[in-house]
Fold this protein.
Amino acid sequence: MSNQIEYERNKAGSKISKIVVDRDLCIGAQSCLAPGGTTYEIDDENKVVVKDANAVEDADLIASAQACPTKAISLYDKDGQLVD
Amino acid sequence: MKEYKYLIVGGGVAGTTAAGTIRQHDPAGSIAIISDEPHYLYSRVMLSKPNFFLGKIPFDQIWLRDENWYQNKNINFIGGRTVTKLDHQDRLVHLDDNSGIKYEKLLLATGMSPRPLAVPGIEKRGVHYLRTLDQGKGIIESVSTVKRAVAVGGGFISFEMANIMHMSGAQVTIIIREDRFWAPILDATASQIVEQAIELSGVKLSRRAQVDQINGNINVTGITLHDGTIIPCDAVICGIGAYCNIDWVKESGIKIDRGILANQHLETNLPDVWTAGDVSQFSDPILEEEVQLGNWINAQEQGRIAGLNMLGNKTPFTFVSFYTSHGFDTSITFIGNVSPQKASVTITRHGPSDNQHAQIIMVDDQVVGAVLINQTPILQALSKIIASNLNITDKKSQLEDPNFDLNLLIDQ
């Protein structure tokens, strides 16, 4: 998939350093909005974009990625390993 | 006889989320999930999405949990089995293979089933419902060869599937009994926007129409409407609503209505029995009425809350859920409770564009739900307004004004 947008995260104490949203997969179900708090917003194409990558703690960010019914959100640690 | 500390009936997102939540906090207690489908958790949301249907997303993207997840969490998945009876006195559920499973704590998360279209010919090949993965596969297999399709019903299945069939090149007719699309949930203006989008695409909309018969020998060749009109087609998608299949719990003494009744902690009237997801008809503390919502995110969040409460917590379910349906370049969003039983007043917020519209539903002086057409940018603000129980008596004119920033109401 080529249509991926990467967002750097540098929240103190967090093991997650990158949020990747795959816009081809995102269907705008918006399931991530509830656990993800102010991390995300919906753009004019009804796709998720990251507004504040440092908004919530790791547990909530992981929950927001798991909540996605199309697996459009991936989280990575500083070594590039998938966090789930 | 097998016995589990936590037994979950229903392998969808509510049941699976509950199981995961329980395991997070109780590393040792035995957990089993009984599902009438043979599959691990998959995305029911994807089943009606064009990217998935038309092969733009790999099929395997539908799986949300794999075997490792169940094994690592020591959750026993009992797939392809139907529960036939609940015997709460003996803390026992009966299965269709005549076996029984005992429990200490039980979660009922059995979801809904599509309402069958009760007309002659319904058994013909080419008649589809869309609820399970296997039903979805059946439609996917037929999509490429279908030339003419009929979608029956004025709801989201019909809306999304008509769009997919149209995108795949079929000539599509939508049959609705009402005089406008998705009535009465959508108001006249909202229906009109959606209908214009449907008809602009070339899809036909047949209003005040009722299917009398499905024609054909083995395969569908068409449908006959009540007025005698025959519409030739080689596929029929039935989307005329859903119901809860809860006959099996009736003798247990559990209180039911359309779904299984629960308090705001998702507890039923039976001790140690909870319910979550589409099947739960839970007590809303603000509205003081029982609410039943059939959407993914509601089921997911209820699963989480039920799981927490099965562990001994008393966490109330207060989440404002929403669901967005897409088709024909139009989005339809439902937030919160869009059809309260109590007397309600609807504020309309039209614009700024002609195809943007919102119905904001109020009970007394609070917003309880909303329907948005092409208005996803105000979804979050409205969800917050609903969740905050804001008194909006003197703010109606601001809610009506499409140029007013709703976030200003929350920050006040």
Q: What stands out?
A: Helices of chain A lie at 33-36, 58-66. Residues 58-66 of chain A form the longest helix (9 residues).
